[in-house]
Each structure stands twice: as structure tokens, then as C-alpha cells.
Amino acid sequence: QVQLVESGGGLVQAGGSLLLSCAVSGGTFITHSMGWFRQHPGKERESVATINWRGHTTDYVDSVKGRFTISRDNTENTVYLEMKDLRPEDTAVYYCARDSNPYHWPRWSNDFDSWGQGTQVTVSS
């Protein structure tokens, strides 16, 4: 089965930056689009950023555009989320996920079927 392990979360002051990493093993990585999601306490999980299998195409939720950057290193089977100008509203558990299908652009959360355990990001005022 595919294993995804997120890291890099922590406590940061508003306006600061964090770099999240997601290491993927046990399955094909380079053929699959990847995504970052986040979930606030008591709220539904939302898509934050998506990147296709080669890294040529990316998409972001409006609230993070211009602040977050998703990237991937296919030689290391790792996807990253660079977060800048963090805000308290960004506080959440961040999850990494893999698209269910190869060479596919995921359009819905249900397109992802492999998930990591999450890493906590807390942004203080």
C-alpha cells in the first residue's frame, strides 16, 4: 500500500513561513498528481494545493494564492508545500494525498485515495 508521511509542521508567528514535506513510498509517485489538504478543528477538510505528475501544472485554493507554493521532487518521491505570510486562519492539520489514477488531474477530493496522517500547523497572532 502507498505510505505518505508529512513533516515540517509546527508553531509559527503570523507572517512567518513553514515548509511542509510529504514523503511517499510503497507505490508509484512520479505518475500521480499530488495534493495538500487541511482541516480546521470541527470543520470539513479542504483542498489547499494540487500539482500534476511532472510538476508542470499547479492549482491553489483562493485563500492561499500568492502565499503558498506546491512543488515536487520526483527523484526523492517527495512533495512540498512552502507556506509564506502565514495567518492564524491557516492553523490546521495539513494532509498530503495521492491521486487515485495515474496521469490524471484530480478535480474532487474523492479523486484522492491515499492519505498521510497529517502534520499540525499553528499560527499565532
Write the layout of secondary structure elements.
Layout: E1 3-7, E2 10-13, E3 18-25, E4 32-39, E5 46-51, E6 58-60, E7 68-73, E8 78-83, E9 92-102, E10 112-115, E11 119-124
Parallel strand pairs: 2-11
Antiparallel strand pairs: 1-3, 3-8, 4-5, 4-9, 5-6, 7-8, 9-10, 9-11
Shape: globular
Order of helices and strands: EEEEEEEEEEE
Number of helix segments?
0
- Report the uncertain regions: none
Give the proportion of residues in helices: under 10%
Overall mean confidence score, pLDDT:
96
Report the major sheet: 7 strands, mixed
Radius of gyration: 13 Å
Which band does the percent of strand residues land in?
Answer: over 45%
* Counted beta strands: 11
Cα end-to-end separation: 40 Å
The secondary structure category is mainly beta
